[in-house]
Amino acid sequence: MRITWNKSFGCVWLAAAIFVSISIATSPYKLFSDTHKYGFSIEPKTFTRSVVTEVTPAGSADKAGLKVGDILLQESVRALVLWLPPDEPPLTIKVMRGVNSVTATLPLDIEAMPMQVTVSRLATKITALTCFLAALLIGLVGKAGTSYRWLAAAFLALGTTWGSYTGPLLGAAVMALDQILFPVALFCFFRFWFDVSKEAGITTPRYWQLAVNAGPAFLMLSIGVALILGPGPLFVEIPLSSFEDPTVYPLINDVLGFLTFSLVAGYAVLCVIAPLKVVKDVPVASANKFHWIAAALLMFFVEDLISILNTISSIVFDFSLRDTSWYEYFDIVISPIQPLCVVAFVFICLSKRIVSFNFFINKTVVYVLTASALIIGFWVLKSNIESLTSIDQDTRKTMINAGVALLVFVAKQFKGLTDAALKKVLFSALGRREIELKRFIEQMEYFENARALRLEFTSRVSSFLHSGHVEIFDRQLRAYVGSDSGRSIPVDDNLAVELRASKSPVLGSTMGGQSVFRLLVPGAYRGSMVLFLGLYESQDLPTIRPDELRLLEDALQKLVTHLAFLELDERRQQEIGRSPVFQGGKGDSVVGA
After folding, report:
1. Whether pLDDT at 233 is above 70
2. Among 157, 316, 367, 497, which one has the highest count of C-beta atoms within 10 angstroms of its own C-beta?
3. Is 34 exposed, middle or buried (0-12, 13-18, 19+ CB in 10 A)?
4. What H or E segment, with its residue span, contains residue 91?
5. What is the mean pLDDT of residues 285-293?
6. Taking phi first (over 0 means left), then psi (-120 to 50 degrees means alpha), and beta for anything else, what does residue 69 get?
């Protein structure tokens, strides 16, 4: 029996879903429950022993009599990790203080869950759910090819580790997954962009291939470090004398921790650089989809990058964001970004058509700047008018209302200026398509060769429509014939009849069936449809906006008018005995048909 990708991935996805479900069902931790403060910190002294490095005054550990320098044996650390207050009784552990054994009972010290922790936990669980959905969507019903399979594996890895709760049944497994699957996900995300660039024919930097080749070693190192620095010492026996040497093991601990963190940070940075590189070099016809996917995945890593930068800052500058007073609000704002990005990614995958990325960003920036200017203007106006104590309250209200009306007018003008400025400065590609087509419409009357005009027209319209494939169909007797492909559409065909009846552009979504066209635009001369422009269907084309349709109609109508003028001029020259400017070929007549 042949094992296909869908079967193998489906089994893995189902196993991960069952694992997460059991983990949640067996865990006493609740999403909105209170939290327990241990009141002390420990660091590994050897593979099987940990040392108390800090004791919070008046905390649980201080009340139990723990002191800095106490040694916790493997059994005590294991009991501490698996202790689940407040459902379990106070924990009694044994510590070594010098050569003596001391028993300490940790009392319960419960405090309300901070708001940022609650928001972060909720966002993490929502992210896990959406990651499972994204993995299933991409892995089973998404695009074929190895690149998107890597992406499905990345989302599945994150969904598994973020969706799990630590409990007595699966506690050790969940703790190990937290440190193993995140590096796996980073590598899979990077490998997705590496394979996508290969499929798109983009040349990748040499260090990308080195990062791919180093991936297996990176993952093996992550597993080993998870055993040594994670829950491994609690459940794994390693009979090495150096692992029990209190002078050697801390060095091994620091080196492995630094190496793993450096690699994780390196792959996280690659996950940001890679989509930027691919989007920059991807063919124009495919850029729209890549831009949206890249934006979603880039924002997905914002919180992780901030966490990495915070760790570096804590090590190098001894400064941590978590120690600042505004971190609570910062964490509340940043936590929902990841689930929103996954939801956006799923929406992109499900949507057949999405608006052009450049257009969306341009309009977003324009409206944000306009709204900001309007709010600031209103605040300044209101503050200055209310400071006029010599004027009664009714007059001040009238002045504020008049000022608001003026601000609305100014904001409308500001919006137009901002839109034009951003198109010219930041979003030149967006504005350039429209400007070039409008300029070409004005220059049509200078063409004296019908064939050259047609070729230039299709080239300009193709560029305007995001490099889509366009073709002109001319009326010839009882059919419309494509000028490039020779494709024939009878005049009594439903498509032609509908187009003549509408006298306006028809989108492919309204044609029904499996139409090969994305858009049809009729061109009329003296009340008859003498030709139409067809934009062929392509998954890479974004939604065509109403303003684009209007501009396209104007361009095609100007083309029909000027082609008719050229044909009449040619006939006139033939009648007076002069050589024609252009010997029309098949399909070049727009009037005689």
Report:
1. no
2. 157
3. exposed
4. strand 91-97
5. 77
6. left
C-alpha to C-alpha distance for 459 and 469, rounded to whole angstroms: 9
HSE-CB at 557 with a 13 A cutoff on CA atoms is 13
d(CA 123, CA 168): 24
Least confident of 148-152, 299-303, 570-574: 570-574
Rounded to an integer, what distance in angstroms lies between the CA atom of residue 409 and that of residue 109? 60
Residue 587 is predicted with a pLDDT of: 43
pLDDT at residue 227, as a whole number = 67
**DSSP bridge partners of 476:** 479
CA distances from 267 to 116, 180, 345, 416 (A): 27, 14, 21, 42
CA 416 to chain centre: 29
d(CA 540, CA 160): 32
Find residue 40's DSSP bridge partners: 55
Q: What is the pLDDT of residue 514?
A: 59
Any idea which residue has 């660039």 for tokens?
197
Structure tokens at 159: 């969904």
Helix axes of 146-163 and 171-199: crossing angle, nearest 10 degrees: 160
In this prediction, residue 589 has a pLDDT band, given cuts at 50, 70 and 90, of very low
Range 421-441 average pLDDT: 78
Q: How far apart are CA 579 and CA 324, in angstroms?
A: 85
pLDDT band per the 50, 70, 90 thresholds, residue 593? very low
pLDDT confidence of residue 86: 61
| pTM, to two decimals | 0.71
101-109 long-range contacts, CB within 8 A, separation 24+: 102/65, 102/70, 104/61, 104/64, 104/65, 104/66, 105/64, 106/38, 106/39, 106/60, 106/61, 106/64, 107/60, 107/63, 107/64, 108/36, 108/60, 109/36, 109/37, 109/38, 109/39, 109/59, 109/60
Q: Say which residue, 460 or 102, is predicted with more confidence.
A: 460
Tell me how far the alpha carbon of residue 365 is from its chain's centroid: 18
Give the C-alpha distances (Å, rounded to integers) separating 287 from 92, 290, 450, 538, 567: 61, 5, 33, 13, 39
Question: How far are the Cα atoms of 11, 309, 403 from residue 471, in angstroms, in the given order?
Answer: 47, 52, 53
Q: Up-side HSE of residue 408: CA atoms within 13 Å toward CB?
A: 6
For residues 337-347, average pLDDT: 87
- Is the CB of residue 222 less than 8 Å from the CB of residue 260? yes
Angle at 542 between CA 540 and CA 546, to 5 degrees: 150
Provide the 3-class DSSP secondary structure of residue 225: helix
- Of residues 38 and 372, the one with the higher pLDDT is 372
CA distance 231 to 150: 28
Which residues lie closer than 8 Å to 297 by C-beta, 6 or more apart? 189, 271, 275, 341, 345
Cβ atoms 257, 224 nearer than 8 A: no
Length of the chain: 593
Nearest CA among 296, 297, 298, 320 for reference residue 307: 320
Q: Is 467 left (phi over 0), alpha (psi -120 to 50) or beta?
A: left
